[in-house]
Amino acid sequence: MKTRQLSIYRGPCAILTDLNLNIPQGQWTSIIGPNGAGKSSLLQAIAGLLRHTGSLSLDGIELSTLTRKALAKKLAWLDQQGGSSPEEFGDSLSVYDTVMLGRLPHQGWLHLPSEADHISVEKALQQTDAWHLRYRPLQQLSGGERQRVLLARLLAVDSDILLMDEPLANLDPPHQADFLKWQGNLLAQGKTLVTVLHEIHFALRADHLIMLDKGRLHFQGSSQDPRTHQALIELFDGRIRLEKLGNDWVAIPS
Ligand SMILES: Nc1ncnc2c1ncn2[C@@H]1O[C@H](COP(=O)(O)OP(=O)(O)OP(=O)(O)O)[C@@H](O)[C@H]1O
């Protein structure tokens, strides 16, 4: 995916300006930056939810020229904190039916879910360790349980590109480790992953980093490149240091 001179608007105001980004296909890209930098807005614009000027293309095709259904099949999006308020799902929508909503782009108008839809929903709920919750109303779940269900809904879409805004929110360490495992499986299947993460040590597990600051691109590059590490330290005003622990980088506030 590529952007050229991309500017993103909320109402009349540009939240992000002049972004020239390369999001490598079949890799994991993490977007990081301080609060208010525009990370969520960038994901929302890619998902077709915010007005933009400039180019936002996939394989040379402008995303804005795709129909909503075609875009929904190509891209799945997890909003920040599971996004939508619990009320949006109604009082009684079950976990199973919530995840089935992820299959809508594959279903015809008023068609009942197919065998393939049911298989995808079960697989997704198993992957996020939420299958045992399937009969529960979404509204009654804890924050972490709810996040695992919304991650399952994202997986059920079976899209080529997965956009995730703070996917680790509310997850305990074992479920964070599970997340990394199934991310690895998705990458092995050739999927493109784009995450917004505040946890820098997780962001550094990605292949590619995009750093935003005050609505502009600060730096983009490989997560293993020393220039990326230097840019990351500058992004946070020198208030972090990076240290290697085994194969992983950790960021220590300083
Ligand atoms: N609905 C909205 N209407 C108007 N301005 C908004 C709206 N949502 C966000 N903004 C503004 O757009 C800018 C970018 O916000 P965005 O949520 O994209 O930042 P972010 O980098 O994801 O921040 P955080 O790390 O705090 O989640 C901020 O200045 C924010 O105040």
UniProtKB/TrEMBL annotation:
It is a peripheral membrane protein. The keyword Nucleotidyltransferase does not apply. InterPro entries: AAA+_ATPase (IPR003593), ABC_transporter-like_ATP-bd (IPR003439), ABC_transporter-like_CS (IPR017871), P-loop_NTPase (IPR027417), Siderophore_ABC-ATPase (IPR051535). Residues 1-239 form the ABC transporter domain. Signal peptide: none annotated. SMART domains: AAA. Its main location: membrane. GO terms for molecular function: ATP binding; ATP hydrolysis activity. It is found in: Cell membrane. PANTHER family: IRON(3+)-HYDROXAMATE IMPORT ATP-BINDING PROTEIN FHUC. This is ABC transporter. It comes from Polynucleobacter aenigmaticus.
